[in-house]
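Dear H.,

Thanks for agreeing to be a second pair of eyes. The structure we're designing against is below in token form, covering all 476 positions.
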């Protein structure tokens, strides 16, 4: 068959949503799904019944009441004060039902059903007709599952952030290079029209030498800076909690971690920087031809108290991170500053009134600012809709087809060129923003980074987090 047979591993909101996009592709056949969660109605979705309504649209006519008995949203969910969402239903069984309903409704003659697995290791051992996997688990599982799949010679699409730790990013790139399978992280920034325009304007000298870049996000959108729960909850029926924890240290189950709320905890997530910086840093690396940083430092606030223990569990609610990158040929060193929790950089001189909303509370919540010695470029968070200062002239950028990262990955699976977000190219990008995450854990310290040796040269305490050990049962 010329179809790529694919398994989706991790079926929360994001995993289910992207799996639906694969179902709609005629060149992909979803043959299996996998998640340690059988089914939960507690997954966060961005709008009441957003996931269910998307499934009904995918299935089409005759499925207007799809899932009305057990998949309907249980109601609103407050993630953090001021951020209201709703609870949707996800897990391996709802995903299996969706895949089978979709292919059955299309009367696919080659369709033989969709297998559902609890453990990805069983999937990789038993699913003999598998070409590729899509990994959409929490961050702490990305590397182990991706590496295990690559060693089985499966193509891998891994959700952002690529890995949970810096050491994992280096290992994933190495295994991808050795196995020569098609890999990608589904972020579109390196190939977007906005990124091409910014790159051409900078390369043409439109704003002079770029020495500073500012990138700000409205996140976090889930709890950070909170205390570790002291109470123990029973593990929900249908959830393999030990498998969900996987390589991370064991702890009792609590709904403060799962579903969805894992992102702000050090053991499972990478905070706002890994969540959103994986997009923007990927674009900035491409635009500026960056190599790994040489230093990082952060200031942070919003911990539940002032003790050291308060900083050992979750990322802060508010922080600024500075990452220093070395010169590249004729290009000078660059400092990238990241802002989150409502913080923004100062307004640049000469800003036009129509762009002032980027720096106003309640205006544009996210953005990117490239500062050169002759002008600046202001753009959306992902580099889209760039504004060029001075405005005497604008770059003439040839319009090209904007191939999303997933399209590039599918083409690579079929023997085409590597995706622009393949694991080898994304490893130094991931290294950079994860070094920023590490700086958040040690605010006030300037960390000196030796990329060649994967080592922070001036802090043994920080080095513990560069390549932490896995629990023995979950080593790959």
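And this is the sequence the design step returned. I haven't edited it by hand at all.
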């Amino acid at each position: 068959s010329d179809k790529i047979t694919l398994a989706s591993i991790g079926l929360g909101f994001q995993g289910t949503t992207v799996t639906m996009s694969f179902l709609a592709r005629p060149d992909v056949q979803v043959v299996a799904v996998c998640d340690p969660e059988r089914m939960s109605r507690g997954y966060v979705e961005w709008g009441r019944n957003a996931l269910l309504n998307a499934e009904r649209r995918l299935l089409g006519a005759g499925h207007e009441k799809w899932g009305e008995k057990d998949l309907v949203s249980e109601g609103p969910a407050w993630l953090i004060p001021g951020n209201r969402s709703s609870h949707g239903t996800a897990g391996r069984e709802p995903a299996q039902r969706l895949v089978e309903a979709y292919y059955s409704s299309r009367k696919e003659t080659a369709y033989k059903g969709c297998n559902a697995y609890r453990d990805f290791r069983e999937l990789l051992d038993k699913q003999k007709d598998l070409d590729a996997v899509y990994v959409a688990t929490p961050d702490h599982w990305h590397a182990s599952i991706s590496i295990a799949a690559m060693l089985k010679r499966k193509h891998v699409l891994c959700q952002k952030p690529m890995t949970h730790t810096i050491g994992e990013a280096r290992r994933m790139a190495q295994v991808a290079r050795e196995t020569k399978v098609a890999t990608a992280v589904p972020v579109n920034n390196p190939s977007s029209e906005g990124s091409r325009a910014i790159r051409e304007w900078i390369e043409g000298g439109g704003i002079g030498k770029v020495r500073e870049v500012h990138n700000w996000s409205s996140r976090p959108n889930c709890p950070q800076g909170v205390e570790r729960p002291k109470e123990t909850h029973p593990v929900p029926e249908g959830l393999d909690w030990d498998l969900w924890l996987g390589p991370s240290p064991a702890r009792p189950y609590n709904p403060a971690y799962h579903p969805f709320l894992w992102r702000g905890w050090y053991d499972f997530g990478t905070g706002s920087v890994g969540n959103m910086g994986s997009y923007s840093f990927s674009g900035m690396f491409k635009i500026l031809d960056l190599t790994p940083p040489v230093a990082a430092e952060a200031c942070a606030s919003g911990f539940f108290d002032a003790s050291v223990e308060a900083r050992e569990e979750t990322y802060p609610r508010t922080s600024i991170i500075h990452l220093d990158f070395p010169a590249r040929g004729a290009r000078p060193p660059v400092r990238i500053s990241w802002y989150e929790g409502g913080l923004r950089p100062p307004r640049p001189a000469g800003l036009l009134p129509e762009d002032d909303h980027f720096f106003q509370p309640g205006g544009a919540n996210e953005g990117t600012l490239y500062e050169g010695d002759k002008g600046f470029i202001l753009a959306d968070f992902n580099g889209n809709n760039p504004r060029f200062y001075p405005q005497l002239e604008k770059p003439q950028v040839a319009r090209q087809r904007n191939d999303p990262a997933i399209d590039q990955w599918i083409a690579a699976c079929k023997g085409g060129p590597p995706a622009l977000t393949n694991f080898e190219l994304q490893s130094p990008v991931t290294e950079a923003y994860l070094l920023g995450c590490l700086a958040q854990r040690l605010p006030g310290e300037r960390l000196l980074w030796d990329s060649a040796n994967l080592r922070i040269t001036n802090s043994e305490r920080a080095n513990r987090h560069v390549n932490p050990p896995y629990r023995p049962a979950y080593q790959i």
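Two observations from my side: The chain has twelve helices and 18 strands. The first strand starts at residue 4 and ends at 9.

Warmly,
E.
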